[in-house]
């Protein structure tokens, strides 16, 4: 800075360092000075918006981001930032519109997609979410994320066959996608196809680190089939992986109570 006073790019780097250090007032003063030197520099408005976002002044952050939007070559990045500010304000309707722009521009922008689906969830707009996901799949038919999320939405509206197909397409798109096997297993369990559910849970265990949740689900499935000893084994595996796994402890207590093995039920209750 001593060699190149009033160099805008160096001043912006300095303001960025001040932001990292949490010196918001100093950063804001420097950015206002930069704005006088370069009133059409996108980065000035982005950094100022970041300051006011951190100060929880989200309306002013949005106002600054809208100015940046008029100057930027990367509209998607700014749309995403505006969407996040509306999320902080819990204005899900406006947030939705910006995340939708991001996804329409780039169907592979999965972070914006997750945020968009969260907005739909808060607004209870399952059908609109399904339409959006189907539109994404027309452009990107092997998006395992879109198929997976579509399946979960079909489960919500009790279209189980459509949900099952969606989970199967997620697996076809990525046969190592653990989440799709788990959701498919949960759905098959709900549909009474218990053995198939167990098969999918076990595949998910082979693909990923051992999971207390999945072992618990396998235990519940074996209970439904009357395989009591196997059920207990899987509940115990779940607890070994996660000693505070409440549902597995409760399942063991309930199991022993039904068997009138009260001492074992009490021991499980005391250990939990």
Description:
This protein has 272 residues and is an all-alpha fold. Among the domains are: 1-73, Alpha Horseshoe (Serine Threonine Protein Phosphatase 5, Tetratricopeptide repeat), CATH 1.25.40; 211-272, Alpha Horseshoe (Serine Threonine Protein Phosphatase 5, Tetratricopeptide repeat). The chain is built from 16 helices and no strands. The protein starts with 7 loop residues before the first helix and ends with a helix.
In short:
The protein has 272 residues and is mainly α.
Question: What's the overall geometry?
Answer: elongated
Largest sheet: none
Counting DSSP H or I runs of 4 or more residues, the number of helices is 16
Fill in the CATH topology of the domain at 1-73: Serine Threonine Protein Phosphatase 5, Tetratricopeptide repeat
Outline the low-pLDDT stretches. none
Q: Roughly how many Å apart are the termini?
A: 62 Å
H-E order: HHHHHHHHHHHHHHHH
Helix content: over 70%
How many strands in all?
0
Oligomer category = single chain
Radius of gyration: 26 Å
What percentage of the residues does DSSP assign to strands (E)?
Answer: under 5%
The CATH class name of the domain at 1-73 reads: Mainly Alpha
CATH H-tier superfamily of the domain at 1-73:
Tetratricopeptide repeat domain
Structural class: mainly alpha
> Under the CATH scheme, which architecture of the domain at 1-73 would be assigned?
Alpha Horseshoe
Mean pLDDT: 89
């Amino acid at each position: 800075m001593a060699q190149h006073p009033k160099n805008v790019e160096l001043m912006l780097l300095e303001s960025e360092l001040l932001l990292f250090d949490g010196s918001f007032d100093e950063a804001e003063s420097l950015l206002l000075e930069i704005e006088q030197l370069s009133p059409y520099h996108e980065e000035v408005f982005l950094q100022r918006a970041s300051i006011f976002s951190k100060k929880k002044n989200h309306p002013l952050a949005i106002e600054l981001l809208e100015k940046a939007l008029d100057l930027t070559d990367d509209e998607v990045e700014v749309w995403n930032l505006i969407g996040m500010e509306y999320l902080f304000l819990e204005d899900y309707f406006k947030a939705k519109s910006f995340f939708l722009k991001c996804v329409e521009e780039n169907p592979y922008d999965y972070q914006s997609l997750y945020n968009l689906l969260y907005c739909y969830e808060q607004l209870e707009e399952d059908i609109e979410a399904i339409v959006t996901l189907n539109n994404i799949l027309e452009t990107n038919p092997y998006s395992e994320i879109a198929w997976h999320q579509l399946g979960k939405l079909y489960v919500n509206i009790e279209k189980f066959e459509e949900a099952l197909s969606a989970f199967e397409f997620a697996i076809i798109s990525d046969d190592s996608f653990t989440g799709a096997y788990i959701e498919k297993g949960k759905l098959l369990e709900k549909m009474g196809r218990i053995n198939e559910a167990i098969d999918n849970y076990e595949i998910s265990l082979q693909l990923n680190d051992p999971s207390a949740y999945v072992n618990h689900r396998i235990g519940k499935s074996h209970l439904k089939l009357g395989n009591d000893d196997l059920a207990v084994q899987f509940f115990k595996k779940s607890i070994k992986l996660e000693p505070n796994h409440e549902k597995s402890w409760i399942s063991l207590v309930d199991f022993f109570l039904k068997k009138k093995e009260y001492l074992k039920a009490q021991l499980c209750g005391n250990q939990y």
